[in-house]
Amino acid sequence: MIEIIEATEFHHPIIRSIAYRTWPDTFEAILSTDQILYMLEQMYSLAALREQTQVKGHQFILAKEGLEYLGFASIEKNYQDQQHTKIHKIYILPEAQGKGIGKALFEEMTQRARTANNDKLLLNVNRDNKATHFYGKIGFQTVGTEDIDIGNGYFMNDYVMEKNIIPSI
């Protein structure tokens, strides 16, 4: 059975490990190896993870089955002082994809957003990432594009997607 737990600083090495195991499979067809390594270090060094949680207010959750960690997500409630929850990250180990883990993580993120009285989920996704199809299937709509300069000559070329989460009456 999939269990979703709150991540603490103790879990940062686990999050880092999942990212390093997931990113090559996710991005090797769309980003150079150098860009993947650069972005992993920028986003998943232990110092970067600590800054995300302690300074930026990101909350990480982990999906696990038994003793094995299979994926993680990161959210920021009340993003930019609005009633929206930003999904900063969601990654599932390649061998664990297609087993309902993404759905379980999204259900947990949606519940947390609703508990904070947030009415939308927001996310950015690389325009060539196959996950865009999954996001569309679970109700996200593309509302724009962004090209974000992340330094070292690299850009994130993303779709901006959102999903209304106000329960229907």
Automatic annotation (TrEMBL):
Database matches in SUPFAM superfamilies: Acyl-CoA N-acyltransferases (Nat) (SSF55729)
UniProt xrefs under Gene3D superfamilies: 3.40.630.30
Gene Ontology molecular function: acyltransferase activity, transferring groups other than amino-acyl groups
CDD domains: NAT_SF
Segments passing through the bilayer: none
Domain N-acetyltransferase: 2-166
Protein name per its UniProtKB record: GCN5-related N-acetyltransferase
Lineage, broadest ranks: Bacteria, Pseudomonadati, Bacteroidota, Saprospiria, Saprospirales
